[in-house]
Specification:
The complex is a heterodimer.
Chain A: E1 5-7, E2 10-13, E3 19-24, E4 31-37, E5 44-50, E6 53-56, E7 65-68, E8 75-79, E9 88-95, E10 104-105, E11 109-113
Parallel strand pairs in A: 2-11
Antiparallel strand pairs in A: 1-3, 3-8, 4-5, 4-9, 5-6, 7-8, 9-10, 9-11
Chain B: E1 4-6, E2 11-14, E3 19-25, E4 32-38, E5 45-50, E6 54-58, E7 61-66, E8 71-76, E9 85-92, E10 96-98, E11 102-107
Parallel strand pairs in B: 2-11
Antiparallel strand pairs in B: 1-3, 3-8, 4-5, 4-9, 6-7, 7-8, 9-10, 9-11
Classes of the chains: A mainly beta, B mainly beta.
Chain lengths: 114, 108
């Protein structure tokens, strides 16, 4: 069984530029999560999807971050414009159920904003 | 106040010893608890979960939960150098909250 797929793995951009990350969850997993992880910290939830519905986006900085999961499968997270403080690893995870069952993480995208 | 707290370490144990990792949480309504292992530069990998008070064993790993004390721990028996990683505690508090992790080093 294929795991969670993310791309790109690494991204370097200048501040004020836009950037997008893509995630494809494990087949059959209806719940998808986007997390941000800073060095030395645990992942912090940005948004959670049940199928195509965003059910928890309270921690998503909506002035510059947006996300979509149009067909309830893969998802895109966008930052526009990026700031220096956005440099982090962006992790996508999926789970087989809405009740925060065991989550499986993708390899992450390491973003560097210069 | 942090919702999920872990000792950041580093915790160093000799090969073959028992490593004990601890986690406390603030929300008494938390229902499920997870331990993830994260190697440097890699993403978190689920190793155990526990829902009920008491112990749960899986191979060399034992998770212990005490809801009255709001405490969850992970024991690793017969520690191996390959166990050297950061261990993240995660708690379902309506959404998943992660601790900052404890860095474990197992010395040969």
């Amino acid at each position: 069984e294929a795991g969670v797929v993310q791309s790109p793995r690494y991204k370097i951009i200048e501040k004020k530029q836009p950037v997008a990350f893509w995630c494809n969850p494990i087949s059959g997993h209806n719940t998808l999560y986007w997390y941000l992880q800073n060095l030395g910290q645990g992942p912090e939830l940005l948004i959670r999807y049940e199928n195509e519905e965003a059910v928890d986006d309270s921690q998503l900085p909506k002035d510059r971050f947006s996300a979509e999961r149009l067909k309830g499968v893969d998802s895109t997270l966008k930052i526009q414009p990026a700031e220096l403080g956005d440099s982090a690893v962006y992790l996508c995870a999926s789970s087989d159920g809405p009740d925060l069952y065991e989550q499986y993480f993708g390899p992450g995208t390491r973003l560097t904003v210069t | 106040q942090k919702e999920v707290e872990q000792n950041s370490g580093p915790l160093s144990v000799p090969e073959g010893a028992i490593a004990s990792l601890n986690c406390t949480y603030s929300d008494r309504g938390s229902q499920s608890f997870f331990w993830y292992r994260q190697y440097s530069g890699k993403s978190p990998e689920l190793i155990m979960f526990i829902y009920s008070n008491g112990d749960k064993e899986d191979g060399r790993f034992t998770a212990q939960l005490n809801k009255a004390s709001q405490y969850v721990s992970l024991l690793i028996r017969d520690s191996q150098p390959s166990d050297s990683a950061t261990y993240l505690c995660a708690v379902n508090q309506g959404d998943m909250r992660f601790g900052a992790g404890t860095r474990l080093t197992v010395k040969p």
